[in-house]
Amino acid sequence: MRARNSSIFRNVDWITVLIYVVIVIFGWINLYAATYDASSATVFNIESQHGKQLLWIGISFLLALFILLTDAHLFSTAAYAIYGVFLVLLLVVLATTAVKGATSWIPIGPFRLQPSEFAKFGTALALAKFLGSIDIHMREVKTKLIAFGIILVPAALILLQHDAGSAIVFSSFIVPMYRMGLSGKVLIIGALAILIFVLSLLLSPYLLIGIIVLIAVAYLFLWLNKRTTKIVVRTILVAVLCSVCVLSTEFVFEHALEPHQKTRINELLGKIDDPKGIGYNVRQSKIAVGSGGVVGKGFLKGTQTKFNFVPEQSTDFIFCTVGEEWGFVGSFTLVVLYIVLFIRLVKMAERQYSKFALVYGYSVVGILFLHFFINIGMVLGLLPVIGVPLPFFSYGGSSLMSFTALLFVFLRQDASHNIMI
Q1: In a structure prediction context, what are the per-residue pLDDT tens digits for the chain, which is 421 residues long?
Q2: Residue 164 and residue 258 in contact, taking contact as beta carbons nearer than 8 Å
Q3: Which residues contact 74 (CB under 8 A, 6 or more apart)?
Q4: Residue 13 CA: distances (Å) to CA of 401, 408, 418
Q5: pTM (two decimals)
Q6: Which residue, 261, 388, 380, is CA-closest to 310?
Q7: pLDDT value of position 62
């Protein structure tokens, strides 16, 4: 057993582990700056957020070690069971008290557990288990339906908790499905739907329908003499579906979204200007990032950070602390660390010998990247604020532990692969 464990540790991708540790430690340093209070400046003050985060970091490191010492096949064997446990927790959490408009936490003494964070991990395992089966082919309709069902069930339960941000992250599972053979048309349709949604909010619906009809007519004019009637039918069908999507946008926007979500989207699109209300967070965040300049104001010297101008600065807006106190150099360094991490994970996924590890690896990449992209985008005012933490960096025990489990299960799969070859 000792020889086996030493072989595992020799084959772990320690560069990826190092990147993880650096991001976690740098995140804690910025969390300390964001929550700094001279009256309780001690690092180990468990009453403070930075003290609690230090505890979560220690637990996460132990969790990472435990995962590396666990048999890699256990995660594949227990994938559906783990997925089921987190589905049950998502059902349980619906009965808890709402926190800031969302019923997303289960109170456990002085702490709160957020099952939606762990549900991403469970879904990644279940999807990898299903798509990793020998007789499963992505081209089959049944396979697609089951795969989308595995993804949509937890996403729907999270939406019922009024946590749209976490639910949106489940769209990242398109990445492993595409890698396993899902048609690129699905991605095009998804991108087209988002484009139509945004344009429908900016333009008159009838104007947009007119544009769609003109494009369809122009396309038919160019291709009518070269194609069969099939292309004509398809073009007309696409034009009709796009028109229906345009007309349904207003209904979805008014009835499916929460009032604060609608306001944030309108503010982002420039339809309203509320710098002291709904746009306050983003405005102050952009001021903080911009005021840092090239090298930043210095550790614990950020005025936006020190005087709490930015709400939720330790969680959703932690990146603006980096921009203010560490400047462009610190922000760029952090972004590069994430990019290097994503590149390494993709390379690791491509070298896996099992479909389970391959699908799971791309699930990890998709989840981490979408979190990174959305969080940085909303801090810079490029995306609406939807409450998505920065992986390994934002405050929160549930998010840190779930991201740690997500990453290190894949590292364990990769280490097992290296031993076999």
Answers
A1: 454 555 667 888 999 999 999 999 999 999 888 887 766 667 777 777 888 889 999 999 999 999 999 988 999 999 999 999 999 999 888 776 554 444 567 776 666 778 888 999 999 999 999 998 877 777 788 888 999 999 999 999 988 887 888 888 999 999 999 988 888 777 887 777 777 777 777 776 666 677 777 777 776 666 656 556 666 676 677 777 777 777 777 777 776 667 767 777 777 676 666 666 666 777 777 888 888 888 888 887 877 766 666 766 777 888 888 888 899 999 999 999 999 999 999 999 999 988 999 999 999 999 999 999 999 988 888 888 787 889 999 888 889 999 999 999 999 999 886 555 5
A2: yes
A3: none
A4: 19, 10, 10
A5: 0.86
A6: 380
A7: 96
Q: What is the largest distance, in Å, between two alpha-carbon atoms of the chain? A: 79
Q: Where are the alpha helices (DSSP H) in 132-279?
A: 141-159, 164-169, 174-179, 184-202, 205-223, 229-255, 259-268
Q: Which residues contact 409 (CB under 8 A, 6 or more apart)?
A: 67, 75, 121, 125, 360
For residue 171, what are the contacts with CB-CB under 8 A and spacing of at least 6?
A: 190, 370
Whole-angstrom distance, CA of residue 287 vs CA of residue 323: 10
Q: Which residues contact 400 (CB under 8 A, 6 or more apart)?
A: 24, 53, 56, 57, 60, 392
Cα separation, 331 vs 333, whole angstroms: 5
Cβ-contact 296, 30 below 8 angstroms: no
Cβ(416)–Cβ(13) below 8 Å: no
The rounded distance, in Å, linking the Cα atoms of 404 and 57 is 10
User: In whole angstroms, what is the distance from residue 159 CA to residue 156 CA?
Assistant: 5
Question: What is the H or E stretch that residue 112 is in?
Answer: strand 111-113
Instruction: Please report where in the chains the tokens 């300049």 appear, as a residue.
Output: 293
* Distance separating alpha carbons of residues 210 and 206, to the nearest angstrom: 6
Q: Which amino acid, 395? A: Y
d(CA 361, CA 16): 13
Would you state the structure tokens that stand for residue 174, as one six-digit string?
């398109």
Give the three-state DSSP class for 299. coil
- 196-204's contacts with Cβ under 8 Å and 24+ in sequence apart are 196/242, 196/245, 196/246, 196/249, 197/245, 197/249, 197/252, 198/269, 200/245, 200/246, 200/249, 200/250, 201/249, 201/253, 201/265, 201/266, 201/269, 201/271, 202/269, 202/271
Q: Which residues contact 87 (CB under 8 A, 6 or more apart)?
A: 119, 122, 153, 154, 157
State the burial class of residue 256 (Cβ atoms within 10 Å of its Cβ: 0-12, 13-18, 19+).
Answer: exposed
